[in-house]
């Protein structure tokens, strides 16, 4: 195992450091920075910007952050915003971006004194950087089927994803369906499900945790959800549940990324917007039950939702739709195949008092799934592969040296 002083720096390519949702990308970056110097590169989004005030504000903010250069974001973490044109569907733009990306990254590495880093990708559209930064190893940590995201060009994004899969030395997929799709392109593809900050979300059960003032007035039973409200959230299902059970309160926490007209307009449904990550256990303390109301889109069928483990770490009863990864937790999650079954399972959960034995089963289910455990397993494979790669390079150099010596004789 490498010591802290000999560990290579990590060039980490992810979404915005200050993004609305705390994703696995952020958790892993913070974990890696505990022992490695980490240079976090904020990458442009995969979809073209919309003609909206929010997107314009984001573009101007990224431009300003890119001009400012690297900025500290905690111990061992420097964050740099990568500037490139977002219109990936045009081949000319992609060629120009390839030049700009490599030039700016090499300049940044020279300025920061980064030599032979590990390149760690959590987004697919920087595949051209593989092998061009003097990296010792390239890792692709894939959390979604990005080509199925709303508003992206599926053909272009799939091509970038496939290219990065082929080029990377190691690929980690957070869903088994993703792993199976990538194995033919890269035999060094491993299944690596998400972790969870068990102690952090366990604060929801702490008597000292105070319920936030802005929702303390809500009357139970409270059905809760936190996350991003995108096209893959089944708002019709939420509306149906709220209509059928007007005496329940639905507490919906997170940024709304769909038109407001699509949101349920019922007095017992409360969309309170995004809240700081640090406050989620306090809000979750109010939940009498948590829900995962996904639409069964391609995005979701290849997803492994973080919130599943976070709800379990809070000890909360969960009712969810059925997906390949969620079904693995059917022993501690109420899985529904239809909206009527979803309602019936919520009825059953909320009609009985919480049992300490059931809460304990939920907590035990994720006790061994901490980020420490998950990323520790990933790093074991990374260090093993790095050692094998360095050994092969040494043997190749030795072989060339022997060959040259023989020629001189």
Q: Which ranges are low-confidence, i.e. pLDDT below 50, for 5 or more consecutive residues?
A: none
Tell me the number of strands: 14
Query: What portion of residues belong to β-strands?
Result: 5-15%
Which overall shape is indicated by the principal axes computed on the Cα atoms? elongated
CATH class of the largest domain: Alpha Beta
Annotated CATH architecture of the largest domain: 3-Layer(aba) Sandwich
Fraction of helical residues: 25-40%
* The number of domains: 2
Number of helices: 13
- Following the backbone from N to C, one meets helices and strands in this order, namely EHEHEEHEEHEHEHEHEEHEHHEEHHH
Cα-atom radius of gyration: 23 Å
CATH superfamily of the largest domain: Glycogen Phosphorylase B
Q: How would you characterize this protein structure?
A:
The radius of gyration is 23 Å and the shape is elongated. With 409 residues, it is α/β, with parallel strands linked by helices. The longest helix has 38 residues, at 371-408. It has two domains: 10-195 and 371-400, Glycogen Phosphorylase B (Rossmann fold); 198-366, Rossmann fold, CATH 3.40.50. The mean pLDDT is 87. The protein has 13 helices and 14 strands. Strands 3-4-2-1-5-6-7-8 form an eight-stranded mixed beta sheet, sandwiched between helices. Strands 11-10-9-12-13-14 form a six-stranded parallel beta sheet, with helices on both faces.
């Amino acid at each position: 195992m490498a010591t802290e002083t000999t560990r290579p720096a990590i060039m980490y390519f992810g979404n915005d450091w200050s993004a609305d949702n705390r994703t696995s990308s952020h958790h892993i970056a913070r974990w890696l920075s505990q022992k490695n110097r980490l240079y976090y590169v904020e990458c442009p989004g995969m979809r073209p910007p919309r003609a909206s005030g929010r997107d314009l504000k984001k573009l101007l903010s990224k431009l300003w952050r890119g001009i400012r250069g690297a900025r500290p974001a905690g111990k061992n973490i420097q964050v740099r915003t990568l500037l490139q044109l977002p219109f990936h569907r045009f081949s000319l733009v992609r060629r120009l971006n390839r030049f700009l990306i490599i030039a700016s990254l090499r300049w940044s590495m020279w300025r920061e004194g980064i030599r032979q880093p590990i390149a760690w990708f959590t987004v697919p559209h920087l595949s051209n950087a593989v092998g061009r930064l003097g990296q010792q190893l390239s890792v692709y940590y894939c959390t979604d089927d990005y080509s199925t995201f709303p508003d992206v060009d599926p053909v272009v994004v799939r091509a970038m994803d496939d290219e990065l899969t082929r080029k990377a030395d190691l690929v980690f997929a957070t869903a088994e369906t993703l792993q199976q799709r990538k194995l033919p392109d890269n035999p060094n593809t491993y299944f690596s499900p998400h972790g969870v900050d068990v102690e952090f979300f366990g604060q929801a059960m702490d008597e000292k945790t105070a319920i936030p003032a802005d929702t303390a007035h809500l009357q139970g039973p409270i059905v809760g959800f936190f996350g991003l409200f995108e096209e893959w959230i089944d708002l019709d299902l939420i509306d149906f549940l709220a209509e059928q059970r007007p005496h329940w309160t639905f507490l919906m926490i997170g940024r709304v990324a769909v038109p407001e007209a699509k949101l349920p307009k019922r007095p017992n449904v409360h969309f309170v917007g995004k809240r700081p990550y640090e406050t989620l256990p306090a809000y979750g303390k109010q939940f009498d039950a948590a829900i995962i109301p996904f639409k069964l889109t391609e995005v979701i069928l290849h997803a492994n939702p973080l919130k599943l483990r976070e709800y379990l770490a809070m000890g909360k009863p969960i009712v969810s739709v059925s997906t390949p990864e969620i079904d693995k937790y059917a022993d501690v999650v109420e899985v529904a195949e239809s909206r009527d079954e979803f309602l019936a399972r919520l009825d059953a959960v909320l009609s009985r008092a919480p049992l300490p034995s059931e809460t304990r089963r939920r907590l035990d289910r994720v006790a061994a799934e901490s980020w420490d455990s998950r990323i520790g397993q990933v790093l074991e494979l990374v260090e093993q592969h790095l050692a094998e790669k360095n050994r092969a390079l040494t043997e190749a150099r030795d072989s060339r040296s022997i060959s040259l010596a023989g020629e001189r004789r």
